[in-house]
Write a structure and sequence with these properties.
It is a single chain. The protein is built from 20 helices and twelve strands. By secondary structure, the chain is an alpha/beta fold. The protein folds into three domains: 9-335, no CATH class; 346-408, no CATH class; 427-493, no CATH class. Helix 12 (269-280) links the parallel strand 10 and strand 11 (285-288). Helix 8 runs parallel beside helix 12 and helix 17 runs antiparallel to helix 18 (438-444). The longest helix is centred in the C-terminal third of the chain and has 33 residues, at 394-426.
Length: 494
């Protein structure tokens, strides 16, 4: 195996003390472990602060009936480098949002809803602050998504691919939001059995769009609708949360896990506001419904020593026990990385005596398949002779252990058979007949097959019968007896 740097080995020590450290003990990032406020608007402000963006902002509705308009705003926000801030019902600009607009020196605000959702009074207040207001609201959620996509193209975004999600399932749009944002990929919405006219017109007018990521199964976007989009690829699971995982898997080659973001898929608003920040880290959003799920199970296997886990929203929407479970999983990931590095770093034909059964367990091998004693020595021997990069994953180390165990089992069976054969030979009392199948016992007892001569059977039996007690209780002694008999018989032939 290759001689690698030993940096990860130190992480094993860190892993033992990780439970005493804060969530960001291993991370170089400055993103904290939880971005939250007492309200959704305050959470959006906390997220906005971390983007580092100034000058422009997206203003979205935080009320349930208006939030859908902003589901597709992430890609525009990322392209403009404009954080998403929130506005509730009423004619007065949210105080926390207003303060952040001032703090970020915002000169232009893009509004993702019409005045039926974000009131004219709010727009008037923005204009009184000498902020330019750009309205993107359409007649419905489908047209609003189109207007957002049009604005991206109008502003010069290089758009060649779109994502499309079902217009009434927040989670599907949120699953692709950060990924689409990082790729300057507008998100469009559709109905199950038909494409809204506004969406069709947009696609017809933009022939440069040549590919589509379709999010969700046929229950939400039928096959006929999917086929009408340019070069469509469907990503889906059995549930919205399965779909979230499938999206993460589909874009694994683009995603990085230095920062891992968790958000509630039911309340959705924190994930909506967080998409641009998540896109900055080339990360995906793991959606939960208040408890661990397939998403958290999947992300556990992606965690590294440097991964920083960030909750978008307070503990009411992303509970502390989920964060703690993920932290514990990170400890395991750190320990596993260190153990694999220890095993893989042993050069070919090098000394593997320092590898322990615990190292194998830490590397991810099933503990019930690991044995001490001769097996451990055999594991060490296999590690020592392994080629470069042959044992740099849990799967490869597991296979090595499985192979060694099989070989040891075969050897154990051979040893048991040999011991039995030796017992049959040595058990012949002085001057009594040796067994008729003596040739077979000699072979099983370990005598070289090339030395066993069938014509000498009677002589072997005679030697066994004449042997003193315990004179033939090892393979070496029986081998010597056969050698002596063969020599005597050969001399008689001369």
């Amino acid at each position: 195996m290759r001689k690698t740097k030993k940096a990860l080995a130190a992480l094993a020590i860190a892993g033992m003390t990780l439970s005493m450290l804060p969530f960001n003990a291993f991370a170089n990032s400055t993103v904290p472990q939880r971005l939250a406020g007492e309200t959704a608007a305050q959470t959006a402000v906390a997220i906005a602060e971390k983007t580092g963006w100034t000058g422009s902002a997206i203003l979205a509705s935080s009320v349930s009936y208006g939030m859908v308009d902003a589901l597709t705003a992430g890609p525009l926000a990322s392209f403009l480098k404009a954080p998403i801030l929130l506005q509730g019902a009423g004619s007065v600009l949210n105080a926390d949002t207003k303060a952040e607009l001032i703090n970020l020196d915002v000169e232009t605000v893009y509004i993702t809803s019409g005045t039926a959702v974000i009131s004219q009074g709010v727009l008037d207040e923005l204009e009184a602050m000498e902020i330019t207001v750009v309205s993107l609201g359409g007649a419905d959620r489908f047209e609003t998504a189109v207007n957002i996509a049009k604005k991206m193209i109008e502003l010069g975004a290089p758009v060649s691919k779109v994502a499309v999600a079902y217009g009434w399932k927040n989670q599907d749009a949120l699953s692709i939001a950060s990924i689409a944002s990082a790729q300057t990929q507008p998100i469009l919405l559709t109905k199950t059995n038909s494409i809204p006219s506004s969406v069709k017109e947009f696609l017809t007018a933009n022939e440069g769009i040549v590919a589509t990521d379709v999010i969700g199964g046929t229950a939400v976007i039928c096959e006929a609708v999917k086929s009408e989009f340019p070069d469509p690829t469907r990503h889906f699971g059995n549930t919205a949360y399965d779909t979230n995982v499938e999206v993460l898997k589909a874009f694994d080659d683009l995603l990085e896990y230095d920062n891992v973001f968790i958000a509630n898929g039911e309340t959705a608003i924190d994930a909506l506001a967080g998409a641009p920040l998540v896109a900055q880290s080339n990360a995906g959003i793991v959606l939960i419904n208040g408890a661990a799920n397939e998403g958290t199970d999947y992300i556990i296997n992606q965690l590294t020593a440097s991964s920083l886990i960030t909750a978008l929203g307070g503990s009411a929407v992303v509970p502390e026990d989920i964060m703690n479970d993920l932290l514990e999983a990170q400890i395991v990931a750190v320990t596993k990385a260190a153990a694999i590095e220890k095993i893989e770093s042993i050069i070919q034909n090098g000394d593997a005596s320092g590898v322990t059964t615990q190292d194998l367990i830490d590397a991810g091998v099933k503990d019930y398949e690991i044995f001490d004693g001769p097996h451990l020595e055999a594991y060490r021997a296999a590690i020592s002779v392994a080629a470069d990069l042959a044992l740099d994953t849990t799967a490869e180390i597991q296979q090595m252990v499985t192979d060694v165990n099989a070989a040891q089992a075969e050897e154990d069976n051979e040893n048991a058979a040999r011991d039995y054969a030796i017992a049959q030979i040595d058990g012949v009392t002085l001057n009594t007949d040796a067994p008729n199948n003596t040739l077979h016992y000699l072979e099983i007892a370990g005598v070289s097959t090339t030395d066993i001569i069938e014509a000498n059977l009677a002589a072997y039996k005679a030697a066994i019968s004449a042997a003193a007690d315990l004179a033939l209780d090892t393979t070496a002694e029986i081998q010597q007896m056969v050698t002596d008999v063969n020599a005597a018989q050969a001399a008689l032939q001369e």
